[in-house]
Design brief:
Keywords: Signal. The protein is mainly beta. It has one helix and 16 strands.
């Protein structure tokens, strides 16, 4: 009797395991082949009206920022599919601002756009911008921000949504005027939505991973 029950338990266990494996969702393959459209290479321009660099409770807000660069198909994961050069923060008559006064930011480019994941159902790529380097000046304080910034890109809208993870960006070389406000080693956040189009058109470039 015990032997029969034991065999029955083994059979049921095996059947359950087989059913579980059969019904478990398949793991998504990691994309290694990236195709830029409508053509590759493709030059682009992008604009944003909501860029915010925040550090130690100080928000430095830009209601205007623009960027340009090029995109190209690539292989690998992560894969470098784009170069961002130049990037501007603010413009004449519309500077970036903070409660400390106007903010002047000079981006040292090029920066690189890297992709790591792709959702075919939504047309959204995940990735990060590497090589971020910019000199920020506000009032008597100036400092450099370097590092990477993660984000997503949506093919249907051309939205490059940047949202740097904690500690991705780091402050260095603060001037004496930054004492008590910004220190070397601080980690600012950076958020913004840049809407990209193929240069000279209203067409959004696409990035598709497989």
């Amino acid at each position: 009797m015990r032997s029969t029950l034991g065999k029955l338990a083994l059979i049921c266990g095996a059947a359950t395991a087989a059913f579980t494996l059969a019904t478990a969702p398949a793991l998504a393959a990691v994309p290694t082949h990236w195709v830029v459209g409508p053509n590759s290479p493709e030059n682009f321009t992008a604009k944003s009206s909501n860029v915010v660099l925040s550090i130690n409770g100080i928000d430095m807000t830009c209601t205007y920022s623009d960027a340009g660069g090029s995109l190209h198909s690539a292989t690998g994961n992560p894969a470098a599919v784009g170069t961002i050069n130049p990037v501007h923060f603010g413009r004449t008559g519309e500077p970036c601002t903070s409660f400390l006064g106007a903010v002047d930011t000079v981006a040292n480019t090029p920066w690189t756009l890297n992709v790591t994941g792709y959702n075919a159902a939504t047309g959204v790529s995940q990735g990060y911008i590497s090589g971020v380097n910019a000199r920020v000046t506000v009032s008597t304080c100036a400092f450099t921000v370097t590092g990477t910034a993660h984000g997503t890109y949506t093919n249907s809208t051309g939205d490059l949504a940047v949202a740097a993870n904690p500690t991705e960006l780091t402050v260095s070389a603060p001037t004496a005027g930054c004492a008590g406000v910004v220190s070397a080693g601080d980690h600012p956040s950076f958020n913004g939505d840049y809407y990209a189009v193929v240069s000279g058109t209203s067409t959004h470039p696409t990035i598709v991973g497989s």
